[in-house]
Design goal:
alpha/beta
Length: about 500
């Protein structure tokens, strides 16, 4: 029965259709696995056994009536910044520890309309601020291959849940690499969609002009299935354009190959100072294998990459400081006790409710937006963002996709990046795509001599998810990476 935990969406769907097992049996098995993993790796903030089992019962009825979709009865998990009506939603923060969502995010509605079963809400860095899931108010999630190492962040819990067979796929959010980085550190697939491709309605925001909904899964094919169900315009989210949605998984088959594909290799990534030798060794092998499979490797340059990090850490704190202003101890969430004035209530509620990183980014953002500094910092960062987007557009006239490491380093020890600036550098290879709004994916690229996974990242233009899935699918079958043995 344990093998069931690591089957694909299509394989599980076939077993459910053949009545080899029921949705109730499947959900129960995944819940049992999630509870076991939770004790060791802290992948979840809230498990939802009663809700999940009720959904599974309904899914069995749907199968009996012949109305099933490929996602009917498939267990998944959602990062704890997705609102689900009647369910606690904390965003990894003490300030929302008792918040019960009054409505449900569009992404969750779309999955559950298709019949998917949510087994729980996953652990995350507080308000998605972090790259290691160390900044969760509910304790850190741990790497599934070595619990002494971080799983990446901020969607670390989602990646751990998928990698350990606690769910078939999971939802995360991306602002600077928050799905791709943990996917790389946990040896799975992490998809970053084009900004606006999937509705953000009902998700507790970090930076509203950059955030995207991003699924993670154990294969490119599964990620394509989930993205297809999530994508599309939403009247509740004005940033979702009415752009046609391709049949993503329908274009992935035995004929999908890298032959004739031009893959750009940005020298600013491959020759970056600080690129770990083990990661570089894996990426050299990835490039050689892709070239041997028929891809043409083209060296390209993205010189503005060095400005992406400083621009990002002006723009994101600025938007975060605005979004966090609503958490004041007055209308909802944590409220400090023993205060005598409204001002004292707000100050103490925010001081006691927020962790160090939200406080840090709120101060940075408020300063960047303050009178006399707005244009010098925020305005200039927006100009850099525009230039970055234009630079990507220019490079994509030369190549079909870019191939880079997902991270400059393999998973690291807890506390190793105690300096906030060191932690910010972890996202160096992922955050430029978020600023540019393009699509990207991380797939397993290989394993270091120490047995740690390394992610390979492919990047394509805006709304080119179909092409991205095809290239990543072909590369996945060329590389054939086997994950390290799980610790749990």
């Amino acid at each position: 029965m344990s093998d069931i935990l690591f089957l694909s969406i299509s394989e599980l769907h076939a077993k459910l259709e053949a009545k080899e097992l029921s949705c109730v049996e499947l959900t129960k098995r995944f819940l049992e696995r999630a509870e076991t993993v939770q004790k060791e790796l802290n992948a979840f903030i809230t498990l939802l056994p009663e809700r999940a089992m009720a959904q599974a019962v309904q899914a069995d009825k749907v199968f009996a009536e012949g109305r099933q979709t490929i996602l009917t009865g498939i267990p998944y998990a959602a990062k704890d910044n997705y609102n689900i009506a009647g369910v606690r939603t904390t965003a990894g923060s003490k300030i929302l520890e008792n918040y019960i969502a009054p409505y449900t995010a569009t992404a969750i509605i779309r999955l559950e309309t298709a019949g998917a079963v949510c087994i729980g809400k996953t652990n995350m860095d507080e308000f998605a601020m972090g790259s290691s899931t160390e900044y969760s108010a509910y304790g850190p999630a741990r790497n599934p291959y070595n619990p002494n190492l971080v799983p990446g962040g901020s969607s670390g819990g989602s990646a751990v849940a998928v990698a350990t067979g606690s769910c078939v796929f999971a939802l995360g959010t991306e602002t600077g690499g928050s799905v791709r980085l943990p996917a790389a550190f946990c040896g799975i697939v992490g998809m970053k969609t084009t900004y606006g491709r999937i509705s953000r309605y009902g998700i507790i925001p970090l930076a509203s002009s950059i955030d995207v909904v991003s699924p993670c899964a154990r294969s490119v094919f599964d990620a394509a299935i989930v993205t297809g169900w999530l994508a599309g315009a939403d009247p509740l989210d004005s940033t979702t354009p009415d752009v046609p949605i391709d049949n993503y998984e329908g274009h992935l088959n035995a004929n999908t190959s890298l032959v004739g594909k031009k893959l750009g290799i940005p020298k600013e990534y491959i020759q970056a100072e600080g690129l770990d030798p083990a990661v570089k060794q894996v990426m050299e092998k990835v490039m050689a294998q892709c070239e041997a499979a028929g891809a043409e490797l083209v060296e390209v340059s993205l010189p503005l990459t060095k400005y992406a990090l400083p621009a990002y850490y002006v723009l994101v704190p600025s938007e975060a400081s605005s979004n966090l202003a609503r958490h004041n101890g007055v209308t909802f969430g944590f409220r400090s006790t023993g205060t005598s004035t409204a001002q004292e209530l707000i100050e103490l509620s925010r001081d006691e409710g927020f962790g160090a990183e939200p406080k840090r980014r709120s101060m940075l953002g408020t300063f960047a937006l303050s009178s006399g500094y707005h244009e010098a910092y925020y305005g200039r960062a927006q100009k850099v963002r525009t230039l970055l987007r234009q630079e990507f557009e220019t490079v994509f006239k030369q190549v079909d996709a870019l191939l880079t490491p997902t991270s400059a380093m393999p998973p690291f020890v807890f506390g190793e990046k105690s300096d906030p600036l060191q932690m910010y550098l972890v996202d160096l290879f992922t955050l430029p795509t978020n600023l540019a709004g393009v699509s990207a994916i991380s797939i397993p690229g290989g394993v270091t001599p120490d047995g740690l996974p390394v992610g390979a990242q492919f990047i394509t233009p805006q709304f080119a998810e179909d092409s991205l899935f095809q290239i990543a699918y072909a590369a996945e079958h060329v590389l054939k990476v086997e994950p390290p043995p799980l610790a749990v």
